[in-house]
Design brief:
The protein is of the alpha+beta class. The strands form three sheets. Strands 2-3-4-11-5-6-7 form a seven-stranded mixed β-sheet, sandwiched between helices. The protein has a three-stranded antiparallel β-sheet with strand order 9-8-10. A two-stranded antiparallel sheet has the order 1-12. Helix 4 links the parallel strand 3 and strand 4. The two termini are about 15 Å apart.
């Protein structure tokens, strides 16, 4: 089977029917499918279908909860702490962002954190929820300990990602979503799955040596973005997620790929209503800054300056029109999953 192109609506339908077969409600199955499809459309393949097989295994093994009871632990005027009961992130972590938005509606700024979310996935998806309300969104996720501290090689902290969404009048959503490792671990997992090497400087093998072997890198440690600066950011984000939620220290989590072991991540979400905080003119200020940046001088070898989210929007529009590319090995995995759970495969509609 060669690489395939699939329309977003067909991929969504396939993912949703697998999730429903694994006991998610129709609404929750659609929410989980939408998060994965959004990642693929935006070119964030590290958090797209390459993750799906592990989600399926966890749901089948009972280490992810298809019907979670999300409950509130702490509720303050500007902050809530929730327990996700090991539910899928598109169900439970989404709830944290919804709470943050509701609190921002009341007080101009609101935050919520959640523990025991079964992998938070593509967190830009949650930050972008704030844009629907004209708000700034910020989301920080915890991660399993897969990053070495600067100067070490042991897995101690997560490559904890952060995402920002900023309202504007641009034709594209301003979104910035990064891991605190040089690349998201999902790109290493995707390369390991397809048998491709990874560039130098992404990761260390289990003995602490630099490697371009994706399979060894998946068992080793990721390297931090910006060397000691990325390490420092990752550690601060651990304090804002794992410590603040009571989810525990990153290094104490089992590897997400060990699907027979319980696994729950923390997430911190914040929403800011700029119109209430500023009194007006926020979008205009953002637009002016974006225009001035794009009109500034180009460095040699560049033909344009992009604002974060601009490139992802172009990829999104192109993928909607032309279809999403699924690698051969991954397409085979998706068809195998369909056969195992007894639903129509992706290649069949």
């Amino acid at each position: 089977m060669p690489d395939i192109k699939v329309h977003a609506k067909n991929l969504h339908a396939y993912l949703a029917r697998v999730y429903e077969a694994l006991r998610l409600s129709e609404a929750d199955a659609n929410a989980c499918a939408a998060q994965l499809v959004d990642a693929e459309l935006r070119g964030v393949s590290s958090h797209g279908c390459v993750r799906f097989g592990v989600f399926v295994e966890r749901l089948r093994n009972g280490t992810a909860n298809p019907r979670p009871h999300v409950h509130t632990i702490t509720d303050l005027p500007a902050f809530s702490l929730l327990d996700g009961d090991y539910g899928m992130s598109a169900v439970v972590a989404r709830r944290a962002m919804e709470v943050a938005i509701e609190k921002a509606k009341a007080g101009g700024i609101g935050a919520a954190a959640i523990r025991k979310s079964s992998h938070t996935g593509h967190i830009g998806y949650f930050a972008a929820m704030a844009l629907e309300h004209g708000m700034i969104g910020m989301v920080i996720s915890g991660a399993v300990g897969n990053l070495a501290p600067w100067g070490g090689f042991e897995r101690m902290i997560g490559n904890n990602p952060v995402a920002f969404a900023v309202p504007s009048n641009q034709e594209y959503p301003i979104l910035f979503d990064i891991a605190t490792s040089k690349v998201a671990r999902g790109y290493v997992l995707l390369a390991a799955r397809t048998g491709e090497p990874i560039p130098e400087g992404w990761a260390l093998d289990p003995s602490g040596n630099p490697t371009t072997d994706a399979a060894l890198a998946a068992k080793g440690t990721m390297l931090p973005l910006g060397d000691y600066k990325g390490y420092g950011l990752a550690l601060m984000f651990t304090f804002l997620t794992g410590a603040l939620t009571g989810n525990g220290f990153d290094a104490d989590q089992p590897d997400w790929l060990e699907t027979d072991k319980p696994f729950g991540l923390p997430m911190f979400a914040m929403a800011i209503d700029p119109e209430r905080c500023l009194g007006g003119g926020y979008k205009a200020a953002v637009d002016e800054a974006a225009a001035r940046i794009k009109a500034s001088g180009l460095a040699p070898g560049f033909d344009e300056i992009r604002i974060p989210g601009e490139g992802a929007h172009r990829r999104y529009q192109a993928a909607l029109a032309e279809g999403i590319t699924i690698k051969e090995a991954l397409a085979q995995d998706l068809d195998r999953i369909a056969a195992e759970v007894g639903v129509t495969p992706l290649s069949g509609g």
